[in-house]
Design a protein that fits this description.
CATH architecture of the largest domain: 4-Layer Sandwich
Number of helices: 10
CATH topology of the largest domain: Metallo-beta-lactamase, Chain A
Shape: globular
Distance between the termini: 50 Å
Order of helices and strands: EHEEEEHEEEEEEEHEHHEHEEEEEHEHHH
CATH class of the largest domain: Alpha Beta
Helix content: 25-40%
Radius of gyration: 22 Å
Strand order of the largest sheet: 9-10-11-12-13-14-15
Strand content: 15-25%
Oligomer: single chain
């Protein structure tokens, strides 16, 4: 039972990272919270940040000030009990003001003091209210007792002879898509199947397996991880138990080891009981970076490290089929996301490496199967735009606010899904990166 304790809450609702009533946030953690759309939990003696599980939201504890700042940077629709309830279950205030965010999905509304809407046109307002933790205790016992079955069903599409893609939905991870909001693929070989990425859980891995079986009865004998984000590899254990050999590059494995506990905890709030039975199994066949040429059951593979969207990210080139599975280097149909872990300079260089391969077919990390020209328009050009404009402004020590406003509406990218939610945050992270590392 959580004791009744009144904790000061400052809720910043705004679309700009600086322009809030009361002046810019000067505290570095407050600034960082604003910059992170999905902040990792940062464990330090001075400050902590936790991901709220809501796009463009972060929570920071300031021990010196004894307050929690909750920053929403997207829109009025987020400042609503129905959405926030999914992320906030309860806060436990421990000695020395350490704040722990525990995620549970539950029904019901937040206390009235937090369940209000702000008009979109007045998003720059700043509100202070108080949250009695005891009000949240009735929700603690509520648990999801069974997994909701996904409505999304993975389906294979032929790319070229013996090479298939499984194109996932473009939205966020959810129970409806079982965390399969990414692209996968497979190659049918003489004696089995090579699977590209294994899904977000044992549950979703079984769904991928079924999609493969709809094409061929051959067993999945090899699983190749292109990256270390949850939906790229948390299905490894499912396939390993069925005799598959899991392969990855060295830096991918190192990142997986570093983040798997956090990923398991984060996925629970998105896919709930669908995560049951999922283990964190890294590759048993690890290849050195940055490139590796190999042949699996007659299929030639050029495995290339990109380190673009996430540390240890890779792309897989099939020279005989002229196909590249790009992992999260390439996005089409939706704007790419620049995470705190992303590196747009490495992404730009990796995209040029992709261009040098001249593939006929590209299976991107997200979006439909495409070609190099389309990938350049919606990904390569976007990397160039961020570096040429936002990165250059940071190097010139221009104002971050003026820079974000100046480049807020590039017409060539505004048609992409998720543009309004991600573009400004993408620019912010690039600016901060180039400012710190010119």
């Amino acid at each position: 039972m959580v004791a009744a304790l009144e904790v000061p809450i400052e809720v910043f609702v705004g679309t700009d990272h600086e322009e809030l009533d009361g002046g810019p946030i000067q505290h570095p953690i407050g600034q960082q919270t604003q910059q992170l759309a999905h902040a990792k939990f940062v464990n330090s003696d001075a400050d902590q940040i936790a991901d709220l599980g809501v796009p463009n939201a972060g929570l920071a504890c300031h021990p010196r000030h004894g307050l929690i700042q909750l920053c929403f940077l997207r829109g009025a629709e987020l400042f609503d009990g129905a959405n926030i309830c999914d992320a906030l279950s309860y806060l436990v205030v421990k000695p020395r003001h350490h704040v722990e965010l525990r995620h549970r999905r539950f029904a019901g509304a937040l206390p009235n003091c937090l369940n209000r809407r702000e008009e979109t046109k007045t998003m720059m307002s700043m509100k202070r209210t108080y949250l009695k933790l005891a009000l949240l205790t009735p929700f603690l016992a509520l648990q999801v007792t069974q997994a909701n079955e996904p409505t999304y069903r993975p389906k294979a599409q032929l790319v070229t002879e013996s090479v298939y893609a499984i194109v996932g939905p473009l939205g966020q991870r959810s129970e409806a898509n079982a965390g399969l909001n990414a692209n996968y693929g497979f190659i049918v070989t003489p004696t089995g199947v090579i699977l590209i990425d294994s899904g977000a859980s044992a549950h979703s891995a079984a769904m991928l397996e079924k999609a493969v079986r709809d094409v061929t009865p051959k067993p999945i004998r090899w699983v190749l991880n292109t990256g270390s984000q949850d939906h790229r590899w948390l299905g490894n254990s499912y396939f390993a138990k069925r005799g598959a050999e899991v392969q990855a590059m060295a830096n991918t494995v190192e990142t997986q080891k570093a983040v798997f506990q956090q990923q398991l905890q984060g996925l629970e709030r998105f896919i709930g009981q669908q995560l049951k039975g999922t283990g964190a199994l890294q590759a048993d066949q690890v290849h050195p970076a940055p490139e590796k040429a190999l042949t699996i059951d007659g299929v030639r593979i050029q495995w290339i490290e990109t380190n673009a969207h996430y540390p240890g990210d890779t792309m897989i080139y099939l020279p005989d089929a002229s196909v590249v599975f790009t992992g999260d280097l390439v996005y089409v149909d939706r704007v790419l996301g620049v995470l705190p872990q992303s590196n747009v300079r490495k992404a730009q260089a990796a995209f040029q490496r992709l261009v040098s391969l001249s593939p006929k077919y590209i299976v991107p990390g997200h979006g439909r199967v495409t070609d190099l020209a389309h990938a350049k328009l919606e990904t390569g050009d976007y990397y160039d735009f961020l570096i040429k404009n936002v990165g250059a402004a940071a190097r010139n020590m221009d104002s971050i606010g003026e820079t974000l406003d100046k480049f807020a509406k590039p017409k060539q990218f505004m048609h992409l899904q998720n543009f309004s939610e991600l573009h400004r945050a993408n620019m912010n992270r690039v600016f901060v990166d180039f400012e710190a590392n010119p």
